[in-house]
């Protein structure tokens, strides 16, 4: 089988490529250049896709004895991931750029090019598992990335491989060391890869500009002025620009954002509770839509935000009624449905949240 190994320069994708070589496949490594100025995208463990990362990936390919190429996807990444991220925040939403990158870059643009060049499979270092075409959580629950892969279609998954999903992360590092790969102790990347400073608000402010608005309480009383709704997310407690807690002495949280009027509403922790989620553009990873009401678990953040309930498709949208309310769910987030079984949690579907109430 001809395999294109996506090599970020990190330990996970390096071991994934090595395992595909061990399995006897015809493997070619490729590093995605996602920035027109690659030297600016890494600061220690923050960021990715720097010249350092490309060089690390090339050295691993040399050790493995496989061909290696760098493909320039910078323009596509800017349009489909960075611009999408900025526009979503300007609308008062809370997007996940890793979800968009997997959906539109790694398993759309990259996979399409790989198949056009005659490759059968794209292998990555994601922590997830595929079993009989079903996407499942990784063995290492702390590193599981099935959430950010749940936007992939059955056809995309048919041409995907996740070679490290059956192994805990410490064992992956140990394996890399045994193989003599210099990335064995390389720090994991954190936060948003294209914001190496970690200052998301400054990044957004530089691109969106000042759009004044008001922070108001549940009764509509203006508590503070702000420079743009992009500085807020549902559930946010700090940095609201208001003096002290509410009249009841309890902390106040962002409970709603209206980008058109620039209004940021704050309230109590209880005001954040939602019992029903609605998501648009559903993707059913097995290729089979849900039929009727299905008991399952929903995850609304890459790490945490889990709840049990009943899901069904209503007028083309994915609707989830929760047994116990979740807090701090925002439009723009991805809802991912899981069904536990004997082989581990299986991903059923995903959708972009448009309503949480």
Automatic annotation (TrEMBL):
The active site is at 101 (nucleophile), 193 (cysteine persulfide intermediate). It comes from the Bacteria. GO terms for molecular function: ATP binding; tRNA binding; tRNA-uridine 2-sulfurtransferase activity. Keywords: ATP-binding, Cytoplasm, Disulfide bond, Nucleotide-binding, RNA-binding, Transferase, tRNA processing, tRNA-binding. It is found in: Cytoplasm. It is an enzyme of class 2 (transferase). Its EC number is 2.8.1.13. The record marks 126, 333 as: Interaction with tRNA. It catalyses: S-sulfanyl-L-cysteinyl-[protein] + uridine(34) in tRNA + AH2 + ATP = 2-thiouridine(34) in tRNA + L-cysteinyl-[protein] + A + AMP + diphosphate + H(+). ATP binds at residues 6-13, 32, 125. It holds the Pfam family tRNA_Me_trans. GO terms for biological process: tRNA wobble position uridine thiolation. The keyword Cell membrane does not apply. Residues 143-145 are annotated as: Interaction with tRNA. One of its GO terms (cellular component) is cytoplasm. Catalyzes the 2-thiolation of uridine at the wobble position (U34) of tRNA, leading to the formation of s(2)U34. HAMAP family: tRNA_thiouridyl_MnmA (MF_00144). Belongs to the MnmA/TRMU family. This is tRNA-specific 2-thiouridylase MnmA.
């Amino acid at each position: 089988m001809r395999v294109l190994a996506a090599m970020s320069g990190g330990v996970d994708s390096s071991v994934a490529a090595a395992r595909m070589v061990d399995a006897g496949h015809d493997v070619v490594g490729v590093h995605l250049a996602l920035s027109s100025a690659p030297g600016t995208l890494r600061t220690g463990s923050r960021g990715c896709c720097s010249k350092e990362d490309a060089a690390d990936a090339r050295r691993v390919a040399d050790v493995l004895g496989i061909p290696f190429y760098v493909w320039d996807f910078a323009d596509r990444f800017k349009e489909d991931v960075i611009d999408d991220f900025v526009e979503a925040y300007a609308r008062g939403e809370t997007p996940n750029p890793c979800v968009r990158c997997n959906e539109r870059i790694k398993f759309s643009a990259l996979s399409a090019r790989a198949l056009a060049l005659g490759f059968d499979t794209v292998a990555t270092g994601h922590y997830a598992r595929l079993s009989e075409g079903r996407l499942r959580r990784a063995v290492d629950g702390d590193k599981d990335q099935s959430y950010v892969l749940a936007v992939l279609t059955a056809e995309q998954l048919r041409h995907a491989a996740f070679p490290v999903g059956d192994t805990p992360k410490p064992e992956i590092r140990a394996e890399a060391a045994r193989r003599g790969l210099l990335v064995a102790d390389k720090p994991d990347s954190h936060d948003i890869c294209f914001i190496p400073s970690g200052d998301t608000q400054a990044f957004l402010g530089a691109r969106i500009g000042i759009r004044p608005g008001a922070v108001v309480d549940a009764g509509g009383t203006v508590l503070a002025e702000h420079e743009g709704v992009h500085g807020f997310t549902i559930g946010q407690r700090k940095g609201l620009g208001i003096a002290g807690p509410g009249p009841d002495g309890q902390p106040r949280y962002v409970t709603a954002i209206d980008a058109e009027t620039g209004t940021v509403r704050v309230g109590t922790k209880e005001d954040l509770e939602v019992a029903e989620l609605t998501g648009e553009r559903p993707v059913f990873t097995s290729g089979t839509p849900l039929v009727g009401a299905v008991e399952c678990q929903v995850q609304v953040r890459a790490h945490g935000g889990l709840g049990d309930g009943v899901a069904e498709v209503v007028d083309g949208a994915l609707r989830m009624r929760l047994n116990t309310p979740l807090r701090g769910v925002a439009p723009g987030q991805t809802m991912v449905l899981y069904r536990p079984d004997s082989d581990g949690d299986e991903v059923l579907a995903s959708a972009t949240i448009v309503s949480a109430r």
